[in-house]
Amino acid sequence: MSGNPYVHRPTASPQAAAEWTQRQILMTNLRTVAGRAYPRVRGLAREKSWLFFEILLPFLTTSAFVFVYRALQAPPEYVGFVVLGGAMTAFWLNVIWMMASQLWWEKSQGNLELYFAAPMDIVAVLLGMAVGGMVMSSSRAAVVLVVATVVYGVTFAVDQWLLLLAVFFLTLTALYGLGMVLASLFLMWGREAYHLTQFLQEPVYFVSGLNFPVGRLGMLGALAIALLPLAVGLDAMRQLAFADAAYPVGTPPPEVEALILVVMTVVFLSLARWMLRTLERLARREGRLTIRWQ
Asked: Is the dihedral of CA 239, 241, 244, 248 positive or negative?
C-alpha cells in the first residue's frame, strides 16, 4: 500500500488530510507534465521526418534571404538578423503545429475524452507538451543557428548576456502561453483549426520581422510588437546579439521589450488557464466542448 499514492490513508487531522491531498494532486500533475513531454524528447532521435521539417526547411529559407541581402549589398548585420530569425522559426512551427492543433488532433483520434476523465489538470497536459516542445525545438534551433553562423560567417556582439538569456526564455514562455490559448480556440473551432494553422503561418512570419527588422514595418511593426511574442522577443534578441549594429530608429530598447514579454506571459497563461478550465467544465458537466454565448 505504501507504493500506491491513490490509496486512502487515515490521517491525524483534517489539515493533514488536506495537505496529503494537495501533495497527491501536485505529484499527479507533475507526472502528467513528464508523461506528455517524454514522447517529444524521445522523438528527437526517433522521428527522422522532424529533422527535415524543423532543420532543413528553416535553413533553406534562411539561406535564401542571406543570398538576397548579399546581392543587394545590405549591411552585414542583416545576415545575422536572418540567421537569428531562422533559428526562431523552429519555435513558431512547434507552437502552431504541435501546441495549437494538439487538442483538436486528440479529439479527432478519440483520446480527448480520456484527458478530461483522468484525475489531472488539463493545463498540466499542455504544459508537458510545451516543455517537450521547447526541448525539441531548442535542439533544432541550435543546429540552425550554429550551422548558419559557421557557413555565412556571422559575428555576434553581446554586451548583456543575462538580459539576452532572460529575453529568450521569456519569449518561449509567452509563445507557448499563446499556443495554449490557440489550442483551446482550435478545439472549439473544430475542422477549421487546420486551415487556421495554414493561414497564420506566413502572415506571422511577415509581421514578426522574421527575416528583417520589424522596425521597418512602421505602425504595423509597432502593432506586432504589442501583440506577438515572436516579434517582441526576436527584436530584443537582435538588439542584444548585435549591440554594435545600426538598428532602425523607433524600436523600443530591449529592457522595455522584456517588460512587454513579462506582461504577455502573464496575460496568455492566465487566459489559457481560464479557457481550458471552461472547456474542462463543459466537457465533464455538460458533455460538450462549445460555448453557448447568450
From this structure: negative
Q: Which of 51-55, 141-145, 176-180, 266-270 has the highest mean pLDDT?
A: 266-270
- Which has more pLDDT, 174 or 219? 174
From residue 53, alpha-carbon distances to 93, 113, 131 in Å are 9, 30, 20
Query: 111: number of CA atoms within 13 Å, CB side?
Result: 8
- Residues of the chain with pLDDT > 70, as a percent, come to 81
* Residue 160 to residue 182: CA distance in whole angstroms: 33
Residue 228 backbone dihedrals phi, psi, to 5 degrees:
-110, 120
Predicted pLDDT at 50: 66
CA atoms within 13 A on the CB side of 10: 1
Q: Higher confidence at residue 262 or residue 219?
A: 262
pLDDT at 6 over 60: no
Amino acid at 247: Y
- Angle CA(192)–CA(100)–CA(147) in degrees, nearest 5? 120
How many CB atoms lie under 10 A from the CB of residue 110? 8
- Cβ atoms of 180 and 268 closer than 8 Å: yes
Best CA proximity match to 81, nearest among 260, 186, 237: 237
Q: From the CA atom positions of the chain, what is the Rg in Å?
A: 21
Positive or negative CA dihedral for 194, 195, 199, 200? negative
Give pLDDT, residue 79: 85
Report the chain's mean pLDDT, rounded to a whole number: 77
Taking CA atoms, 33 is separated from 26, 121, 130, 190, 211, in Å, by 11, 10, 9, 25, 34
